Amino acid sequence: MNYDLTPDEQELYDRVAEFADTVVAPAAYEYDTQRRLPVEIIAQMGDMGLFGLPFPKEIGGQGRSYFDLCLAVEALGRVDQSIGVTLEAGVGLGMMSIFRYGTEAQRAEFLPDLIAGRALGGFGLTEASAGSDAGATKTTAVLDGDEWVINGSKQFITNSGSPITKLVTIIAVTGERTLADGTVKKELSSIIVPNGTPGFEVGPAYDKVGWNTSDTHPLTFTDVRVPKENLLGERGRGYANFLQALDEGRIAFAALATGAAQGCLEQALRYAKERVVFGEPIGRNQHIAFKIARMQARVHQARLAWHDAARKLDAGKPFKLEASIAKMVSGEAAMDNARDATQIFGGYGFMNENVVARHYRDSKILEIGEGTTEVQMMVITRELGLTA
């Protein structure tokens, strides 16, 4: 496996990193305290082609790889995880299923604005008692003539209530099916619900510990009617199709976490060289230097893990095991580096205007979102043949 970036990949990373440093970083504290998604920055990311990176040129994309998307997410995650996850979720959850399973009419209606960054899409899977346990889904969709009638609720849905949100694709129970052994299971399907559909209500944004700039809302559906043509993909294949997007999303999530770990490393290294105590930079103290050495090792490990998974994905090789490893390793690296960076900064690290303080608040979700660390270990043990 070659872990070197090609010249085109390096150029992309450098270009996005410069945008992150000059545009995103200076505004990050303001938007974090306002708890709002800066749609003007999202528009600039759209103009840069970031939302279209992994999609073909013939539909408005950049014709590049999933690896390239992850590079952009990592570069943004260094300075603001909220902006990085807006890109990651916008592509992986908002667009990928429509691109992969949508009809020509669905792709023509929804993808152009999403790819251009003029609009965002969300994916509604999680409920109060359902998420990893998709079989506990209670939201229903009943076919009534030429329309689906949807009732239920979703929670923790990213990009679902921003000023530019265009749609949310949801998982709903559309019936039951009997397996060969006689077991009866819920039939889960994906349905596109455009923003503004009567009965579709977006609740107030969550008061979160971190990711304050990222748009996250609960959703309720009360006799929501959408055309039967809004079924996304084959009926009864909604969750199965989403699992592929989730596996892919874990790689981009790992890239985001790697960016966060890298950002903490950069800040801690700079401060350790500048901060003078008792006549010497604190970085000359062995306990500080060793802490930073450990931070560097975590970043290296996390980056190698997501690079390996992304290269396998783009090569068409199995990548489920590698994606879960990357997600687990990088999430822990981000959380550990955020804690160590905050400790190195001391009191300054406890001030919210400091990027390491935001990383400290933001990074915990990297061990929870898109499958907790425990879920990743379940996947890994299953892939190793240790569990059914």
UniProtKB/TrEMBL annotation:
<dbReference type="GO" id="GO:0050660">
    <property type="term" value="F:flavin adenine dinucleotide binding"/>
</dbReference>
<dbReference type="GO" id="GO:0003995">
    <property type="term" value="F:acyl-CoA dehydrogenase activity"/>
</dbReference>
<dbReference type="InterPro" id="IPR037069">
    <property type="entry name" value="AcylCoA_DH/ox_N_sf"/>
</dbReference>
<dbReference type="InterPro" id="IPR046373">
    <property type="entry name" value="Acyl-CoA_Oxase/DH_mid-dom_sf"/>
</dbReference>
<comment type="similarity">
    <text>Belongs to the acyl-CoA dehydrogenase family.</text>
</comment>
<dbReference type="InterPro" id="IPR006089">
    <property type="entry name" value="Acyl-CoA_DH_CS"/>
</dbReference>
<protein>
    <submittedName>
        <fullName>Acyl-CoA dehydrogenase</fullName>
    </submittedName>
</protein>
<keyword id="KW-0274">FAD</keyword>
<dbReference type="InterPro" id="IPR009075">
    <property type="entry name" value="AcylCo_DH/oxidase_C"/>
</dbReference>
<keyword id="KW-0560">Oxidoreductase</keyword>
<feature type="domain" description="Acyl-CoA oxidase/dehydrogenase middle">
    <location>
        <begin position="123"/>
        <end position="224"/>
    </location>
</feature>
<dbReference type="InterPro" id="IPR009100">
    <property type="entry name" value="AcylCoA_DH/oxidase_NM_dom_sf"/>
</dbReference>
<feature type="domain" description="Acyl-CoA dehydrogenase/oxidase C-terminal">
    <location>
        <begin position="236"/>
        <end position="384"/>
    </location>
</feature>
<feature type="domain" description="Acyl-CoA dehydrogenase/oxidase N-terminal">
    <location>
        <begin position="6"/>
        <end position="117"/>
    </location>
</feature>
<dbReference type="Pfam" id="PF02770">
    <property type="entry name" value="Acyl-CoA_dh_M"/>
</dbReference>
<dbReference type="InterPro" id="IPR013786">
    <property type="entry name" value="AcylCoA_DH/ox_N"/>
</dbReference>
<keyword id="KW-0285">Flavoprotein</keyword>
<dbReference type="InterPro" id="IPR006091">
    <property type="entry name" value="Acyl-CoA_Oxase/DH_mid-dom"/>
</dbReference>
<dbReference type="Pfam" id="PF02771">
    <property type="entry name" value="Acyl-CoA_dh_N"/>
</dbReference>
<dbReference type="Pfam" id="PF00441">
    <property type="entry name" value="Acyl-CoA_dh_1"/>
</dbReference>
<dbReference type="InterPro" id="IPR036250">
    <property type="entry name" value="AcylCo_DH-like_C"/>
</dbReference>
